[in-house]
User: What shape does this take?
Amino acid sequence: MPSKSLEELASFCKRRGFVFQGSDIYGGVKGIYDYGPMGVELIKNIRRHWWNSVVYNRDDVEGLEASLISHRKAWQYSGHEDGFSDPLVVCMKCGLRMRQDKMVDTTKCDSCKASELAPPKDFKLMIGLSVGATEGELNAYLRPETATLTYINFKNILDCTSRKIPFGIAQTGKAFRNEIAPRNFLFRLREFEQAELQFFVNPKTDMEWFEKWKADRMAWWTDIMGIPAERLRFTEHEQLIFYAKAAFDIEYKFPYGFDEVEGVHNRQDYDLGSHTKAQDEFDIKAKVRKNTDSTAKLSYTDPATNETYIPFVIETAMGTNRCFTAVLDNAYTEEDFGDGNTRIVLKLHPRLSPVKAAIIPLAKNVPEIVAMAEEIRKSLKFLGTGRIMLENSGNVGKSYRRHDEIGTPLCITVDHQSLEDKTITIRDRDSMEQIRLPASELRDYFANFYRTL
Assistant: This one.
């Protein structure tokens, strides 16, 4: 069963080296987290399989890694500077700052229950910067999303690749928002990671592509991330933002209920059109362009028909940290075998496991056993499946339990018999079944186990 609460999951993540509170030795920073030795492996595996699915396994998507800092104008024309805010309410009694749309009761403080509340006001979510300028002059922002930087690179990628519509641009990376009330562990953060695809289509085929991407993205969650279909659902937006034609969220059932992990949106031509405004205004109103305005018309001319249009955008936007949390929560399992015999096991799909195999010498003080274990580790390491660990604790039982908890699919034990007949024991994480195998056959066994992942 998944974890009972996100607090339980957060405690487990710290204990087993998945996630730590950011700057925790100084009291921590809310909404900021660091990924430990196991967490960094898991999140890298999630990124890799997203990229494989969206880019490498297709012939119509290019990649991009844009800067974290971008020109203020980009966020003015995108509409973020004027409209990207949350309603902030401050309790006049205890000083608590709350998002009005997330309050339990908008007439009372969530903490002290006082009714002395300041009138709500817009709280800007973007983090402004002064880059190479006079102190205090706002001329840039830390990006609050990756999508806008994809749109302003549309023409660059179109020109350098000779792509034809339909095609997409994929990007993963950090984004930053000055959240009023970060919450739910890794769900709502001030520094977070996104994996987003902007797929550019002819306006005549937009809904056909929208439905295709909806199906593809849900299949990725079930088939690649290993999330059971019953723990996922599509939820259609009841009220569409003004530029959207259609919008659905993929939601995962967290311990507190269903919540969004990815969005699939038909954004029409709003985004490319927004960054073409400066060019349009120049054509009509002026003979000299201001050098800070956009100089590119982000339109497309079909070479076959000579039709010119601003492409519609079908967007898939996944929160990588939210995916990480959902995958961990789904895999977290407590098993009770009776008579006080219990274990916690992280039943991750092997393709996502931080450690692919643990090599365990039965006796850490027997040099021949340790040497054989090290040779096995080296031979498996060069297969390139991922991290292979030598677990030289001298206690096989504790080593098994530790690797159950971090999701290691296979534990390979070298013992005294191994020195005599060159065989080893392989233990399966989920079934706990063990088989004895000649060490000479281990590479093939291991390669076959991971070949289809």
